[in-house]
Amino acid sequence: MESVKSNAVSYGVILSACLLVVLGDLRSLISPTGYWALWGVVVLVGFLAAPERLNLKVSRELGIYMLGFLLLFFAFGLSALVNLDVQTFYQALKVMCIGLVFVCIYTHSQRLEQSSYFSISAISICVGFCCFFFAKYFLVGLYIELGDGRQGSQFAYPGVLWKTCAFFAGFVIIGMLFDAKNKVVSLLVLMAALYVLVMDSSRTGFIVFLFELILIFLLSVHVRPQVTLLLCFLGLIAVTTGLILYSSGYDFMNMNDSPLVVDRLAAGDPIRSRMLADGLNQFESCMPFGCGFGSTTTQVDGEPMVVHNAFLTSGGDMGALGLIGLLILVFTPLLIFISRLWRYAKYQYKEKQVFIYSVAAFGGSLGFALLLMLHPFSTELSEWGIWMIMTSALSVLSHQFLVGEQGPQS
């Protein structure tokens, strides 16, 4: 009975963290302090309601992540001292708090079953969709539409709304295709996820989601090769038919009404290219201790703007130590997954179902790395919450690879 209670607490902790990520701009309604306080409540409940989850024994994997946070903390502190910048030291304290939250999320995730991530993701998508839908059609004071047509709400601005789909839809798709989850419910949830993705029209969001789909396709080739071959054949027929109709003059799609994200992808982004060049220059000039948080900027329309690449800004702001710490945190979960998958591939006995959801978590972790390549470094929990959830999920789900190392038990 006690185990069931603590498992319920772990489920609630992870679900609450996911909802706070989906509603990442809730801080605009309740203040940034209020948003951090909600995360604090989640951590407090996690520590007090199931204390047996938290012990003094630290796994090697968790130790590596804590080392990454420690390096980031000291990088911020050292940069603050060198540049006499109080704001940079304040960011160091925030990094320390993020590390504490991660320990709670990571520890509780270790007790969740694979299927729990399907239901948590489905609930998160539904909450994100409902908040946007009601803001757009009923609570119009909370609705946001930018000048270029991108949409969002006070709960999740344009540029944040897409994360609801890109980081959680993969778990729903995998559950629907490979884990016998309710197909109707899964399709409805997936439609809601795609709706908010299109409404946001984020290029980053579509790229991350495309990576997820590619990984799921590769998973399908491995788990259900015959079904995958049939779908590819049907897709080829559909594309060929469309090309024949189009070449014959049948205009079945008005290109003037193409989705906003298509226009944005086609337009390119020359400003970002200039950002990267300026960021690289400041990265080199600010080594080895960095020039302080928010100092790696470029000029856009005569105004300074932070360079949209977290790896360049971490080095330019916090120096070499900050860059190393960030690299450890972002790429360690990916490397651990690959090493475990490599060991799993060598097993004589393989249970294909054991790793299906880890593919979605791997896609989420890979997506976060891509996110950092296209966005500035942040010390907000709305951003790092994604990393915490995906890294924790990837850890527990890929660890199940090793369970079958000895083969089937008699």
TrEMBL record:
InterPro entries in alphabetical order: WaaL-like (IPR051533)
Ranges that cross the membrane: 34-50, 62-82, 88-106, 118-140, 160-177, 184-199, 205-221, 228-246, 320-342, 354-378, 384-403
Alphabetical keyword list: Membrane, Transmembrane, Transmembrane helix
PANTHER family xrefs: LIPOPOLYSACCHARIDE BIOSYNTHESIS PROTEIN PA4999-RELATED, TEICHURONIC ACID BIOSYNTHESIS PROTEIN TUAE
Protein name: Polymerase
Biological classification of the source: Bacteria, Pseudomonadati, Pseudomonadota, Gammaproteobacteria, Pseudomonadales
